[in-house]
């Protein structure tokens, strides 16, 4: 027969076991969360010095001119694409919001054509047309390649160091296009997707964008606005295969990529 003392001890042991199980579950959840944040950080380039703390995609340029903002999500992994904040108004919306546009990037590594749907991302398409018409991207470098954690080539910075931008910001668009975030807080950006970098805060996109060359998991906070054609995707994948300077996994591509000319036309 079980005495009251034995029963109390048994209940205490069971309570302790449940507490330990909850602690372990919380630890695993926190670990998954930190992995996701790290990946998001990898998409954000840190202010001023573009510190790659994690896996965020950012554009550090939108601050008033070409000043960089801080790394929106810094965590330990591969930093994300980012852009800095700005005070100037975005260009007047003049694109046909029912049309499809093509952005052609003539690079030293091949032609990359990006199809953009103005019905889904009118502000983004309008900004790219405005900048391309002004030859903003001509002669600029794709300054960042990541080959671990996230798989992107980041371009669109006239300074070539992750801190440049157009002096204005544009709103986020089409954020639900890739589906609902999973338990880890991410969605899959399929290979061939083109999306906007930002500072890690809503509505901070500028001119920097990233080309996804291999399926990549990121939080759904980066505007997906275009799709790369097959030849262009192959060219980006070839650049990625060559790796990062110095054998790193995040930094300037070993095979330099320069955009000689960028044009945006209505299809």
Description:
The structure is a single chain. A hairpin with a 1-residue loop joins β6 and β7. The protein has a single domain (4-266), classed as Cyclophilin. The N and C termini lie far apart (85 Å). Residues 36-55 and 62-78 have low confidence and may be disordered. It is elongated. The protein is of the alpha+beta class and 267 residues long. Strands 5-14-3-4-12-9-10-7-6-13 form a 10-stranded antiparallel beta sheet. Strands 1-2 form a two-stranded parallel ribbon. The chain has a two-stranded antiparallel ribbon with strand order 8-11. The chain is built from 3 helices and 14 strands.
Spatial strand order of the main sheet: 5-14-3-4-12-9-10-7-6-13
- Under CATH, the topology can be stated as Cyclophilin
CATH class: Mainly Beta
CATH architecture: Beta Barrel
Let me know the number of strands. 14
Described by the principal axes of the CA atoms, the overall outline is elongated
Beta content comes to 15-25%
Q: How many domains comprise the coordinates?
A: 1
Rg (C-alpha, Å): 22 Å
- Provide mean pLDDT, rounded: 82
H and E order: HEEEEHEEEEEEEEHEE
Instruction: Please report the distance between the alpha carbons of the first and last residues.
Output: 85 Å
Domain PPIase cyclophilin-type: 110-264
Keywords: Isomerase, Membrane, Transmembrane, Transmembrane helix
Pfam families: Pro_isomerase
Biased composition (Polar residues): 74-87
């Amino acid at each position: 027969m079980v005495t009251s003392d034995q029963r109390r001890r048994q209940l205490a042991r069971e309570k302790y076991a449940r507490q330990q199980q909850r602690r372990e579950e919380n630890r695993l959840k926190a670990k998954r969360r930190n992995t996701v944040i790290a990946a998001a950080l990898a998409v954000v380039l840190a202010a001023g010095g573009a510190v790659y703390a994690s896996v965020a995609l950012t554009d550090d340029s939108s601050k008033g001119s070409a000043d960089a903002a801080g790394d929106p999500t810094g965590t330990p992994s591969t930093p994300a694409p980012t852009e800095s904040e700005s005070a100037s108004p975005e260009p007047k919306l003049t694109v046909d919001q029912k049309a499809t546009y093509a952005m052609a990037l003539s690079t030293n590594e091949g032609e990359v054509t990006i199809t953009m749907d103005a019905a889904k991302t009118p502000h983004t398409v309008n900004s790219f047309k405005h900048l391309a018409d002004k030859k903003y991207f001509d002669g600029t470098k794709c300054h960042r390649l990541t080959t671990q954690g996230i798989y992107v080539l980041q371009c669109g910075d006239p300074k070539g160091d992750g801190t440049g931008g157009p002096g204005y910001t544009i709103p986020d668009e089409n954020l639900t296009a890739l589906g609902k975030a999973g338990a880890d807080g991410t969605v899959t950006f399929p290979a061939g997707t083109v999306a906007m970098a930002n500072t890690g805060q809503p509505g901070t996109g500028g001119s920097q964008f990233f080309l996804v060359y291999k399926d990549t998991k990121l939080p759904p906070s980066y505007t997906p606005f275009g799709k790369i054609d097959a030849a262009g995707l192959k060219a980006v994948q070839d650049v990625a295969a060559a790796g990062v300077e110095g054998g790193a996994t995040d930094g300037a591509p070993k095979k330099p990529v320069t955009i000689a000319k960028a044009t945006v036309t209505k299809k």
